[in-house]
Specification:
With 382 residues, the chain is an alpha/beta fold. 32% of the residues lie in helices and 14% in strands. The chain has one domain: Aldolase class I (TIM Barrel). The chain has twelve helices and eleven strands. The chain starts with 62 loop residues before the first helix and ends in a 28-residue tail after the last helix.
Length: 382
């Protein structure tokens, strides 16, 4: 087994300016593509070309890239390598205007679930690693518990919401071996008055139900279970190593039975695959039956690195849809505003029909109120 990761020369994703939108015929809820719809992909559907770059010697790397290059390989299984990554902190300040919180926690860099559409693939590029290796090179943040204890003592985070699992899944398979997420949660359980949320695609979260109950006694905690579709075969194509949708929904049921605030995030909603009204209605009904308190949704957003991976997947599995994505996304970014607005309206109807909220409606902490409670839905979030 290699002791250190081997960083191969990889192309940097081309970041080009978005072309002006063109009038496109949009069907809001097209017939979802079915398996077996295969054609030979056309060369005209290829993603934009990217320039080559030369491999950098380790001594020339800086920041997180240097740390990644020097991280020892701790284990390798299932075709995935795990590296121990030294970091200075566990809580990360988030300045994105796309999210309504300032602090995030991602115990791992990279995610073994391998979701075809994952927007976070670009985070591997910060380590000079190609986004295509996002699911095969997983970096475990070292000393997660000790760093979390120190970070939680920083007064800068007091009164602010902390979102766990914003870029990578905190309950991916690596958690079974390394336990970084649990180590962090154990330190949070010792605190009072925190505002926390966990977002995951994994039913492994039920392992920590007792711990989550302890946290909920002293802080505000919500769990968002990400379920993009109830169709098992489609889910396996889109999210190759994530637990089945029914297992995730059952986890919601167990969380609610344990008294933990939980809901379902239909994120992302994938145009042409998971956006039919029939499928979304079935998802909302299943969430209600499992005791979910809210149903959130956001249309697929493609970063340049995720566009490269996802469009190649569409060309192979759904070639007709791949051509439409070129018109819709122009290479990356958001779906047109008209589509997002209509989908948001549909989600409003589904919530009213099934008695679901749009987001957690709970005080953010047991001891104080925060302006972050006023989480507003932006255009494109259903």
């Amino acid at each position: 087994m290699a002791t250190y990761p081997i960083l191969r020369a990889t192309p940097r994703t081309l970041r080009r300016s978005r072309r002006d939108p063109q009038e496109t015929s949009l069907t809001l809820f097209p017939q979802a593509a079915r398996h077996g719809n295969r054609e030979y992909p056309s060369e005209t559907l290829a993603p934009p070309p990217v320039p080559d770059r030369s491999e950098k010697p380790a001594r020339e790397l800086v920041g997180i890239a240097r740390l990644a290059a020097s991280s020892p390989c701790a284990e390798a299984k299932r075709g995935t390598e795990y590296f121990l990554l030294p970091v200075k902190s566990i809580l990360n300040r988030c300045d994105s205007d796309r999210v309504p919180f300032k602090w995030t926690v991602n115990p791992y860099r990279g995610c073994e679930f391998g979701c075809r559409y994952c927007y976070a693939r670009y985070t591997h590029e910060y380590m000079e690693i190609d986004g295509g290796e996002f699911e095969s090179k997983i970096y475990v943040k070292q000393h997660a518990g000790e760093l979390a204890e120190r970070d939680l003592s920083n007064e800068k985070i007091w009164g602010e919401h902390i979102a766990i699992g914003t870029a990578t899944d905190p309950y991916q398979p690596a958690e079974r071996e390394f336990g970084a997420t649990r180590a962090i949660l154990e330190k949070m359980a010792e605190r009072e008055g925190l505002s926390l949320s966990i977002t995951t695609k994994s039913n492994q979260v039920v392992r920590d139900i007792e711990l989550l109950q302890r946290i909920s006694e002293r802080s505000s905690l919500t769990v968002n279970m990400s379920i993009t579709t109830l169709r098992t075969r489609l889910a396996r194509l889109l999210e190759p190593r994530a637990p089945r949708p029914d297992l995730r929904m059952e986890a919601v049921r167990k969380l609610r039975e344990a008294g933990i605030a939980a809901g379902v995030f239909a994120m992302p909603i994938i145009p042409g695959l998971t956006d039919s009204e029939k499928d979304l209605d079935a998802l909302a009904q299943s969430a209600r039956d499992a005791g979910a308190q809210w149903l959130g949704g956001r249309v697929l957003f493609l970063m340049p690195s995720s566009w490269k991976s996802f469009h190649a997947f569409l060309q192979e599995k759904f070639p007709k849809l791949a051509a439409r994505y070129l018109d819709w996304y122009k290479g990356y970014g958001d779906m047109p505003k008209e589509y997002r607005a209509k989908l948001a309206a549909l989600f409003g109807e589904l919530r009213r029909k099934h008695g679901l909220g749009s987001r957690p409606e709970l005080p953010l902490t047991k001891s104080w109120q925060s302006p972050q409670l006023a989480l507003t839905l932006e255009m494109g979030e259903a």
